[in-house]
Design a protein that fits this description.
Layout lengths: L3 H8 L13 H12 L10 E6 L2 H8 L5 H6 L2 E8 L6 H21 L3 E5 L6 H8 L5 E10 L22
Antiparallel strand pairs: 1-2, 2-4, 3-4
Helix pairs in contact: 1-5, 2-5
The chain binds flavin mononucleotide (FMN).
């Protein structure tokens, strides 16, 4: 396959185990830069980010999800927020956040990093905000765990394309 974009889309897998190799700060900013180039309604760019590398913070954050082992094993975390003061439409702004997060996952893939989108932690979003000293103006959308993949044997599958096509008129 020729297109690097399609390659990244098809090769990207959720990576949940990481090596201890640190991630250069520039790469983290590159991933966020890819995120902010996602489309948003009215180009309102409602996303905001918290970067977490600190071990104590990671430990505290890990207590807010079943997936604590992923958070503890990651070299960096990026919490993706919506800023309610920048929002104009709940659904469209959440769609923009999804586009932003997927851009970030694809950027991680392009940079040979591994990443996983963590959503289960949202059930404790109030506690996460407390930890970051953020008020309810900021609505947590996901935490992305990042690191160099321990291995690349992850498998995933998708149903047959035909199962998703409602009509082809
Ligand atoms: C909204 C959303 C929430 C997710 N939450 C979690 C999570 O909390 N923990 C986790 O390990 N993976 C989580 N994932 C990753 C999915 O499990 C994964 O994308 C799916 O199984 C397909 O695998 P793939 O990403 O390797 O193609 C989440 C993905 C999405 C889009």
């Amino acid at each position: 396959m020729q297109s690097p974009i399609l390659q990244a889309i098809y090769h990207r897998r959720s990576i949940r185990e990481f090596t201890e190799q640190e991630i250069d700060s520039e790469l983290i900013y590159e991933i966020i830069r890819a995120g902010i180039w996602a489309p948003s309604g009215l180009n309102n760019q409602p996303w905001r980010f918290v970067i977490v590398r600190d071990k104590d913070f990671r430990e505290q954050l890990s207590r807010q999800t079943h997936y604590s082992h992923i958070i503890l094993g990651a070299q960096a975390l990026i919490a993706v927020y919506l800023d309610r003061e920048a929002m104009y439409d709940e659904v469209k702004d959440q769609q923009a956040a999804g586009a932003c997060i997927e851009n970030m996952l694809l950027a991680a893939e392009a940079l040979d990093l591994g990443a996983v989108w963590l959503g289960q932690i949202l059930k404790n979003k109030a506690e996460v905000n407390k930890l970051f000293k953020l008020d309810e103006r900021f609505d947590l959308m996901a935490v992305i765990a990042l690191g160099y993949p321990l291995h690349r044997q992850q498998k995933s599958n998708r149903k047959n394309l035909n199962e998703f096509i409602l009509k082809n008129i």
